[in-house]
Specification:
491 residues, alpha/beta, UDP-N-acetylmuramoyl-L-alanine:D-glutamate ligase, eleven-stranded mixed sheet, seven-stranded parallel sheet, 16 helices, 18 strands, 15% strand, elongated, binds ligand NPW, binds potassium ion, Bifunctional NAD(P)H-hydrate repair enzyme
């Protein structure tokens, strides 16, 4: 997993990396510039190949100057607009400025005529992770001017004006794409910044996970390769008992779809036996979506021990009695998945939080999370609260959304990379509950169940949305679950 390094540590990393690799900071900048251009060129198939690069005074600006050179070498039309006098810019900026080839149109911002030809691509290299205060004066004017321009806008490393690991504190360049070096900066993962970051892309500049891990501060970014080693393997002699017997409690009258979706998702994730216990008196009235799902009638006296894992909450309703709710924790005793009305009931009866079995997985979306822990001023505060909740009650909190956060009881915070906007559809959360419960039931450690569940869920969404886009439903996500195992070559 990539650690997500704090902005104010990044200069230290540059120095340590350059000395370990025996390269100069200028060479590292060249690598960054090259990785950017290698990523950029295939993106711009229909463009005329005309670029306007705006460079600020630091090394982000230096990246921009190096990129202007590399684009010119590829015979593109390149304009470089710099903002501060060159002799007041960073050393590596100045070294790159000296290397600019003939044909790059160079102009200082205050002398620039303000014209950008249609179909041009605007590259923002004004500020990177070194931003330390809100923009004012000329810099503010530059960003305001560029935000009014039409055309594809791309930020290098981070949209200028956005601090690396805090909530935005002023005007920010509005990018369509952000190409960030080596690992995403924390603030790129905040939902409230989506309009300025656009789509973000992580570009490799050669730093290994093990090198970066020396600078980690508990935040990590989950990639596809990270989950491969976490999966259990099964063999020809495995029988349905090995794949787990799971139970879902939820679905009051009128919300039958909820645990049906969870149950079906758990079958598709590999569960051997799946039972549903709807919150209704007469289960004859309950139709299961697929014949493989079995009905179970729970009574608060019976043992739940026969199940390997349970998932509670989807469509449950708020009529569940407190004592019955508590009895589930007491009767099962082992890690379980708590979602939807299970979480709303915890918000209603906060004294029950301490009864939750250790290492259980709680899966709130932003609204459910707010009910549990109160309002947050921004996503940074939300992340801190999720982490505190995980540590205090020794549970795993999955804060759902783009780049879902997995907050672990030991304080680590893992941000997911899979998934897309089309997954914001009814029942998507019930599917996740089914997948998490399935992995728990197959004997995965709760931490691994959480990581695999979140990643596969996002990947299934990506696969299903290829043909369905906005029309994708939760059932489509379920149907794509087997493809996630095939894609990752997992037997
Ligand atoms: N490690 C990596 O992965 C690699 C990183 N690389 C690149 O380096 C970038 C970081 O470079 P950086 O440290 O020079 O910071 P950057 O943001 O360019 O500028 C800081 C300058 O801005 C100034 N300043 C700050 N706020 C201001 C404000 N509001 N208004 C006005 N001025 C303000 C501040 O001066 P100050 O006035 O505070 O003295 C300082 O002069 C990084 O994002 C990436 O693109 C790659 O090249 C190689 C691999
Ligand atoms: K930038």
């Amino acid at each position: 997993m990539f650690p997500i390094i704090q902005g104010n540590q990044i200069q230290k990393i540059d120095v340590a990396y350059c000395s370990a690799e025996g390269i100069s900071s200028l060479e590292l900048m060249e690598r960054a510039a090259k990785s950017f251009v290698d990523w950029l060129i295939p993106q711009m198939q229909n463009s005329k190949g005309r670029f306007y690069v705006f460079s600020g005074p630091g090394n982000n600006g230096g990246d921009g100057v190096a990129i202007a050179r590399l684009l010119k070498y590829l015979n593109h039309s390149v304009h470089l607009i710099y903002i501060k006098d060159v002799d007041q810019c960073s050393n590596d900026f100045q070294r790159n400025f000296e290397r600019l080839p003939e044909g790059v149109e160079i102009c200082r911002f205050d002398l620039w005529n303000g014209k950008i030809e249609p179909d041009s691509i605007i590259i923002d290299a004004i500020f990177g992770v070194g931003i330390n205060r809100p923009l004012e004066g000329t810099y503010l004017r530059v960003i305001q001017t560029l935000n009014k321009q039409v055309g594809l806008k791309i930020s290098i490393d981070i949209p200028s004006g956005l601090p690396a690991d805090q909530a935005s504190f002023g005007e920010v360049f509005k990018a369509d794409h952000t190409a960030t070096f080596q690992f995403p900066k924390l603030s790129l993962l905040f939902p409230e910044h989506a309009l300025v970051t656009g789509e973000h892309h992580v570009l490799d500049i050669g730093m290994s996970d093990s090198f970066l891990n020396k600078f980690e501060n508990g935040n990590f970014y989950l990639k596809q390769n990270d989950i491969l080693g976490l999966h259990r393997t099964f063999h020809r002699f495995s029988h349905k008992g090995n794949f787990g017997k799971v139970l879902f409690l939820g679905s009051e009258q009128g919300k039958f779809g909820a645990i049906n979706l969870s149950g079906y998702a758990s079958l598709r994730t590999g569960s051997g036996l799946v039972h549903l216990a709807p919150q209704i008196e007469n289960t004859f009235a309950f139709n299961t979506l697929v014949p493989e799902l079995m009905l179970y009638q729970d009574s608060s006296k019976s043992s739940l021990y026969q199940f390997d894992a349970i998932g509670i909450g989807p469509g449950w309703g708020m009529g569940v009695e407190k004592d019955y709710f508590k009895s589930i924790f007491v009767r099962f005793k082992r890690p379980m998945v708590i979602d939807a009305d299970g979480l709303n009931l915890l918000a209603k009866y906060p004294e029950l939080k301490k009864e939750i079995p250790e290492n259980s997985i709680l899966t709130p979306h932003l609204k459910e999370f707010e009910r549990l822990v109160g309002e947050s001023a921004n996503h940074l505060e939300r992340i801190e609260k999720a982490s505190s909740l995980a540590k205090e009650f020794k549970v795993i909190v999955i804060l759902k959304g783009a780049h879902s956060l997995i907050a672990l009881p030991d304080g680590r915070r893992i941000f997911n990379s899979s998934g897309n906007q089309y997954m914001a559809t009814a029942g998507s959360g019930d599917v996740l509950t089914g997948m998490l419960t399935s992995f728990l039931g197959q004997g995965y450690l709760p931490e691994h169940a959480a990581i695999c569940g979140v990643f596969h869920h996002g990947l299934a969404g990506e696969i299903a949305s290829k043909s369905k886009r906005r029309g994708m439903t939760a059932s489509d996500i379920i149907e794509a679950i087997p493809d996630t195992f095939i894609k990752l070559n997992l037997l």
